[in-house]
């Protein structure tokens, strides 16, 4: 970045050149991080908003845990103990709350509608970004998401079906964003900095933590509708910043220095080109390295969904406390994953820069941290007994170690085919999203007859097995080498010299040597 300022010195104009110390690609990294932040802010805000929108009715709840509160002073004093029988809850009056008479089934419909089409748009999001440019795809979908969030209060007041439609459209828009961001990374991240760039994709974690922290005060002070208006307006402002800062590639950025542009382009070489055609689906779907990457990504998402959906129920039903009631403690696993992902990203880049390992060895070695160690921690969790501190520590360590996914499944598609990184991620993410359906079903099956340690052990064994087996499969069959099908064949090459054919009517004006070729 360069900018010039003219000043008067001794009646002469002197020109001062100030060279920006912040590279443009760092600004792109910040926008990648905040894009994930914004996407998750709009995705998860409804989970809390609906609590304020629907009055909490009086109810009787009975919950028995296998652990006694007196056995653990930390649970008894710091966390809300759940070993309660026949507790009558009075209606909760939340300041600024709404009065929507939605049944539990209608509320579930509202919350679930976001994900109805999300896997489908994940499939096409990468292809859209590769064809029209990730800058436009992310901008349009984020702009649409912001507007849909702003009109959510009006839709809710109209009818619950209207808010279902709004959330459904939000899910359609949201599915495009992550594959498009991976397409942008492929065009901006030099190989030795790809770990740091991919770590920006953990911005969704910060978006989740911050949204859950801010929504409550917003509702209490300004009413439930403000929890839609504020994120929506912030998203529109963010879109303007995105449009100004981000370009599809270094070659198209108006404010990048020649030195930085040349550095990125030389580092990427000919691996990334602006593609207008469809990905080579036949080559992709028959590629064994791609299959290994998909299985690794599936194992990662299985572990994440397992901890997010099954973990809270386990600590509530078996250990006897509500993790969500602990405030900062509930955010520890996510913050640990965010923090360690940045460390792993920098570490991987340093190893690659100093040629300590090949790309393939880095991907396989760090599967130990991203998949195998988290799986081991899940097994240890079910044997931790009634120790609250140890249980929280194991959950936090499991999620934290998974931050190494920035060097394994979250980056491997960039290795295999940078030209189609968005499409590869979209396919893998669409398949991996099905893990969110299966983990609750498996949990329900094994715990149908009770909530003791004996019933829960098979649940954790299954979760840990998927984590570990997917890593072992990738270690044997995965690779970090760029595949041949990454390079689209030029039409001239495919035509086998058809461009050299000459019309016979022009033969009289054509040298004989040319006709003979």
Any chance you could write out the topology, listing elements then pairs?
Blueprint: E1 2-9, E2 12-19, H1 24-53, E3 59-63, H2 73-77, E4 84-89, H3 104-112, H4 118-132, H5 134-150, H6 152-158, H7 160-188, H8 194-199, H9 203-222, H10 226-245, H11 258-268, H12 281-285, H13 288-317, H14 328-353, H15 359-365, H16 367-382, H17 388-401, H18 409-416, H19 421-432, H20 435-446, H21 453-477, H22 491-494, H23 512-516
Antiparallel strand pairs: 1-2, 3-4
- Summing up helix and strand content along with how strands pair, one would put the structural category as mainly alpha
The CATH topology of the largest domain is what?
Answer: Growth Hormone, Chain: A
Number of helices: 23
Distance from N terminus to C terminus (CA atoms, Å) equals 51 Å
Largest sheet, spatial ordering of strands = 1-2
Number of domains: 2
Radius of gyration: 27 Å
What is the ordering of alpha helices and beta strands? Answer: EEHEHEHHHHHHHHHHHHHHHHHHHHH
CATH class categorisation of the largest domain: Mainly Alpha
Mean pLDDT: 79
What is the share of helical residues? Answer: 55-70%
- Strand percentage, roughly? 5-15%
Q: Tell how many strands the DSSP assignment holds.
A: 4
CATH superfamily of the largest domain: MFS general substrate transporter like domains
State the low-pLDDT regions, or none. 1-20, 59-63, 69-92, 322-327, 491-517
Q: In the CATH hierarchy, what is the architecture of the largest domain at level 2? A: Up-down Bundle
Q: Please tell me what the overall shape is.
A: globular
